[in-house]
Amino acid sequence: MIPVLRLFFGLSPAVTAGVALFMVLANGISASFAYLRQGRADVRIALVTAITGIPFSILGTILVHHVPVAGFDLLYGAMLVYFFVDLMRRRNRSTPNVSTAAPRLGGTRERTLIDAYGETFTYRWSVPLALGLGVAIGLATTFFGIGGGVIFTLTSLALLRMPVHISAATAMVVMLLTAPVGVASHIIAGDVNWSFAVPLAAGGIIGGQIGPQIARRLSTPQLLTVLAYALLCAAIALGLRHLIPR
48 versus 239: which is more confidently predicted? Predict the structure, then answer.
């Protein structure tokens, strides 16, 4: 959505972030309750992450007003390309429920989660990492308008070997906790164009119910592949904005 707002409607980075985050909040509220019903969101990890995510989301709103337009697009596109490469590299190495590989981060604790369908997931977690993720998510939430869910998902996959289904569900709850403050800060700054934000939020609410049902039926490699190519398409779209003469 962010490349569409930038490429076809020419919204400024700050307004793009504000509009996108408003939709992310609506989508996050809808999807979070869907994932909570499935029992796949680790609420404890989400709460710890939000401790630092909430205050740093205010800083992101301030920073986005001082970045050049091309700089915003290039930073966002580069981030998405990195995520694409990382996801494609790990998609065939992930196991759906149990992390067989050791986490890359020391000082972790083991957690076991049983979802509403009786499926058991075992993985590791770390309080310092959750707090550090909160800083990155808070900044990304309001600077880019992405909600920070992709940062939580990919970092927890890389460092904690968390199963992708648990990671995605927990990321949505993190957004549910952090995005309201980010939306409020963008509204105060005058960054939310309501003619874009309201219809996109309506679509986000609908998608938030459909997405978890699709995710539950996909294998881990399939889910990672879908996410990876979605990110790559967004990066290409942003790059084309500066390569195609207008």
Answer: 48
- Taking CA atoms, 154 is separated from 58, 64, 165, 202, in Å, by 23, 23, 12, 27
DSSP label at 98? B
The pLDDT, as a whole number, for residue 103 is: 54
18-28 mean pLDDT:
87
CA-CA-CA-CA torsion sign (147, 150, 155, 160):
positive
Mean pLDDT of 122-151: 86
Q: Which helix (H) or strand (E) holds 125?
A: strand 120-125
Q: Answer for the pair 95, 220: CB distance below 8 angstroms, yes or no.
A: yes
The dihedrals phi and psi of 114, each to the nearest 5 degrees, come to -110, 120
More confident residue, 3 or 131: 131
Instruction: Please state, in angstroms and rounded to a whole number, the distance separating the CA atoms of residues 42 and 115.
Output: 10
Residues contacting 114, CB < 8 A, separation 6+: 39, 120, 121
Q: What is the mean pLDDT of residues 43-55?
A: 93
Strand partners for 123:
111
Taking alpha carbons only, the member of 6, 11, 33, 25 closest to residue 184 is 25
What's the average model confidence in pLDDT over 105-125? 85
Q: What is the largest CA-CA distance in the chain?
A: 55
